[in-house]
Fold SpoIIE family protein phosphatase.
Amino acid sequence: MLSDASSPLAQEILRQMLDGTTAGVAVLDRELRYSYVNPTLALMNGVPSEQHLGRTIGEVVPGIDAREDVLRQVLDDGIPREVTSSGHTRAGSDRERRYWHGAYHRIEDDGQVLGVIGIVLEVTDAREQQRDLEEARARLSMLDRAATVIGTTLDMDTTCEELASFLVPDVADIATVEVIPVDGTTELRPPPPGVLRLRRAAMAVLPRLRERSRAFEAPGQYVDYQPGSAIPRCLASGRPIVENLPNDEALSRSAPDPQRVTRYREAGIHSAMVIPLSARGAPVGTLTMVRSGGSPAFTDQDVVTAQDLAGRAAISLDNARRYTREHHIALQLQRALLSGPSHPHPDLEIATRYLPSGTSALVGGDWFDSVRLSQERTLLVIGDVMGHGVAAAVDMSHYSAMLRVVADEGLPPHEILRRMDALMARVAGERPATCLLALVDSRHGTCTYASAGHLPPAVVDRGNRVRLVDVPPGPPLGTGQGGYASFTRPCVGGDTLLMYTDGLVERRGEDIDRSLQRLTELQLPDDPPLDQLLDDLLEQLMGYGTDAEDDVAVLAARFTPR
């Protein structure tokens, strides 16, 4: 040990230690002016040691948040403190921001405060690693949340809405999802040569931009993109496109059409990012995000986050798109298989509705028909083949076609059912079916019913009361049991006959009598047109436009004698 710290040897050893350490060391006087700086700190600051002396930290390195308030506290109370400073010194650096961690102690001599000594280490690498770790954790957390809220259904537009809503406001001020139209789902004229047409499936907007966003296409509308604009370029390259702070000329080239630049500027839009949505090697559409006003420009990290989200969402979108295309084909097949009601006699008005099941099977065995037998007589038909799927739909087409042939023989309704039952029982593999017939005779003002295991019809009278018609059912068709009967009831002019399949009224876990009672409790408008009556009926019973648990077929007929 050195017995005299002030000896030349001790001072030389101290100098070597201070000059050779990799930590920056400085001594500041009571005015926080440099009185000593070691070579390491001089190198950190980019200023020679001698040019520090007599100057404050702010004068030497004005780009540093030096936290001089903390240093004054150390001078005042003598309690050592540690603090992290950040910014840039005069030494060149390619870092976005540099960080230093310093420990400060008060210097005293015989009770007299001389100043502060500080020992500083640069911790930029550690801070950036910590920041990267935190950003990675945040990104993983976001992806985990996205997995639970994006792709919850097989409806493509719902999936797009979930994606856009998830991004606003955390990633973008406005987010839109455009999809490549599914073949055969649009009847619009083809776009001009070189123009790309996409359908806007979803848009999410910050509240402050909601009014401005009304100038742009709403979800469900189609957008035509000029050649060379951002979205066609993104789809062609399969790579993200980021345009931060573009001038008006660049913005007009990237926009769907140049006329939009004024509206973009009015909304304060200054940055845009377009991410391709692709799955299984095929493009699905694009995700566009914009920032406006005081929001920062997009960073590389934003691109990585958006690509991660887009990659996961694209799989759900592709599944939904495949389902949408197959569902569209299935509906076209179902409508083709359904017999188009022929023209009834002049005193009978008819309206129909068909809603496919929103669960599992895409096609089913529900059908309706009207067969004009003479000038005064029309046979109304509704039926339901048991089961779902293509096989049920094919069997339904067999029942429908055979019933038309049998009906032309002029038999009463119960005899038609008897013949149908016997014929279908001989055909191997045909599924049983329920069926309800109503023969309307305008000359006699009567309606004759016969039922093969089907739910009873209902009549809506002029007072808007709904009552069930008592038609005892026989066995379903195709069982070969026979035993059908006809029941004749008067037809009152202006009354509306409702014939329907079980999907209209049946609910899982509910007794069928309660389901039918709900039908009789409906509050319908006064003397509505048939189409409006059916829309109100479906809206009240099941929420028109929502997914049905089972296929629904409804036929409404109104007798209006002249």
Q: What stands out?
A: The longest helix spans residues 300-337. The longest strand covers residues 98-109.
